[in-house]
Fold CpsD/CapB family tyrosine-protein kinase.
Amino acid sequence: MEPANLFTVLRRYWRLLAACTAAALVVGFLLTPAGDAVDNGKWQCKVAITPVAGAADTVRADQVLSYAQGSAVTTAAAQKLGVKDVAGLTARRTVAAESTQMLLFTTTGPTQQSCAELAQALSEATITGYAQESKKSADESIKRLRAQADAQQAQLDELQKSVSRANANDQAKLQPQLSTATAALTKTLGAIADLQNYSQTDAIQQWGSIDAKELGGSLLSSPSRGVRLTLAVVLGLSLGVVAALMLSRMDTRLRSRDGAEEAFNLPVIGEIPRLSRRLRRLREPLVTARPADPATEAFRSLRSTLLLTGPESLSAQFGQGGLDPDDRRVRRAVEPAPVVLVMSGRSGDGRTTTVANLAAALGETGRQVLVLDCDFRQPELNAHFGMDEGPGMAELLSGEQLTDLVDLIRPTRVPNVALIAGGHATAYPAALVLRAGEVLALARRYADVVLIDSSPLLNANDAYDLVQHADAVLVTLMAGNVRPEEADRVSELLARTGVPVAGVALLGAEVATGRRNRSLRLPGRLGGRPAPGPEPGRAALPRPVAAEPSRPEPRPEPRPEPRRPDHRRPEQQRPEHQRAADGRREPVYGAGEGGSRRDGTTSWGRRPAELPPEEPVETTMQLRLGEDR
């Protein structure tokens, strides 16, 4: 995975990363106490015992080892620590002679503090106990030596008396005996003095400090709580990254341009970046509220692509000079406005947002745009234009509160854009949509472009019934909202209608992954019939062409098409000079109305100019309107 795509995945799952990090931090805080103790660790402490200076000749290592291994030392240590389980302390300590002059205690424990306390207690118990045992042994030796000294002293006194009574020759003979007795007594008294000094001082001592180290601890068993929590954060973040990558692998929802083109088998003609929460709450189209925003430029790019690849009637230069209101009315009567149906597979695909902003972008070109809210299940277009609820398409199609179509056309604050809201539907929405053909035929003559917002295709059949009345279809897709199988179903349904599909508008677009799919077959311009040989079961695809008003592209002779009924009213069927002069009422298209159109533009009617004029046929809607008047 490329670094850019990795960062995109991490940004998509940032909540998961934050949750894993917070959970690891909380767990690490709860499981690691403050200070140096670590409850879930294992520690080992070592302490050495050696003879004191000058006592090396009198202390025997085997005697000290034998005493340290006895139960007296462990019992004394348990009493000092206040522990009743003497056997448990015995299992946690080992003692061995490191050398002839050093004894080594090794203790283990769950925490550093408990391990060190046990080692210290064993060391002190050994030193104190061995000193007591040595003093007791010395006292017994002193007592025995004192008795021996008394006997030697009595023998010496007898010899001295014999020497004093003897003559000179006998004294010479007794003098060696007297010297031997004196030397023996002196030696005994010296031994008694040494034993007295030995019994008054410790024979062994602790060598250095306690050596403690951690054994088999976890990552959170650092001696510092701050370090432990830092390790917990790193561990939680790592787990979050792994979980995000796994979810990204398992998530098959369409998020990129390449994925959308492959799933729909349609070109993506517009990529709209994700809008922030603040921009989504605006009560007017983003194109007029934030003209310099990157998303606004993306909607303008979508408009330009739609004009270049859509029906020829969309690329006509209305509103750029050359037509006054009467001429515009006459032109609309001859060449009705094109109808663009904006639809989506599921709800939440940004369909209504696209309609509002595309209408505002088309209004910037001078075209007068009429927006019809045919989403009777959840009408929201009035909120996107900052308008209150009122009568609209529901009342018009059901025959309630209807005097004329123009009475329901409400100007918006967006220049050159008017709206017929969804209204308040009292009948079943599917029954209303079935009657939309007559209303759309009349609406074509009140604008340069008619945009329709509909219900989601996979959730309701409304959009499928409206497709037959449209000149082009624009599919919207919110990144991460549709799965490939759902996109394939939308493409299959559109292919059955035969209506040209301009392409897909991808909202919330992400960075494209891999190479683009170059195998898409793009037919000719959407104004005519699709190019021969499209893939079975797929919607027809447009091919971008350059707009050349002065040099129209030559095309073959059009095939005869089924004749459609003329939906013009009687006054619209009169000659053009009479229709222009009778002053028929026109709807107001905001502050931006008044643009003109250059001369010499090509004809952009829906029917070829070569077809003969059609017979006027009054529809049910026109008859009802005539009866009302």
